[in-house]
Here is the input.
Amino acid sequence: HPSQAKSKSGSPASGTGSQVNPNSLLLPDSTKPTFKIPEPELRKPVTVIAYGDMRFTNPKEKIATDPKIRMELVRRVAKERPDVLLLNGDVPYHGGVKNDYLVYKDETRIWRVEHLRVFPVLGNHEFYGCAPAQCLENWWNTFPKLKDRRWYSVQVGTSIYVIALDSDDSLESGSRQIKWLTGQLDSLSPSIKFVMINLHHPPVADPNPPSVKDKVPRPNEIALRNYLRVAAQAQNAKFVVTASHIHNYERFYQDSVMYLVTGGGGAVPYPVIRTPGDLYKDPKLPNYNYVEFVLQGNVLRGTMYRLSSKGTWQAKDTFDLKF
Here is the structure.
């Protein structure tokens, strides 16, 4: 299974980054956003879309990922024209195959035509088939504005703050990433109403059936969940966490934080065992999906859109976060 894959260096793909090349990471001022989008440049209402697990690769590969679904999602997102698009990891199928990134660029050409602002995070597939340093080089060549950064932040106007984390690196207490995150949260502008944290591996998730040999959440993301249990309570802003890795959709509200799994980007569907805490109950597969957030005053409304068997998009889950 992907979470058990190893890089050429022989160490597990997840968690290797800080050990292999500690000098490859640019540590910006943790008290400021890495990127800022001025309010006048945003549409009204402000819209953010999040989803992951696309696995862009040679279209001849139709088992691990469905190229038709990938392209349908690309077209749908382009039609929605969000102010910000968050890609929650596993963008390529194999991060060590440069052609996978070329496929990504080719299949998402319409996003550049529409001038979409795309902000991705690293997943485990970004570290497939190459040593970590080379994997990161391929990533940064594809997303040059992120050069030398494995985590970063985006202030979207005056009300939304996006924090992009790297779940392939440590999220444990005292880690560089958590120290940076603490600096970000401690320095939030009073105008920020909603903090959107996106990463690949989910901090909260349903268990998988035995047929899916993956265990989530992992200790790394549980550490983040424990951190947010305290950090979110100390902030006036409301928190929502979007992750992927599980090729399905799940929603939880825990410790004043909304946790989402939106991994319906085209990768082979995964069944889950839905627990009472999962606020989404529909067991149907496949569950190809994305989540759209729309800011209306003091309310951030989230809607999960699911692709039906007839090829139409249907709103299957809706929720509100109120500031």
About this structure: The CA atoms of residues 33 and 159 lie 13 Å apart. Helices lie at 17-20, 67-80, 98-107, 109-113, 132-142, 176-186, 219-231.
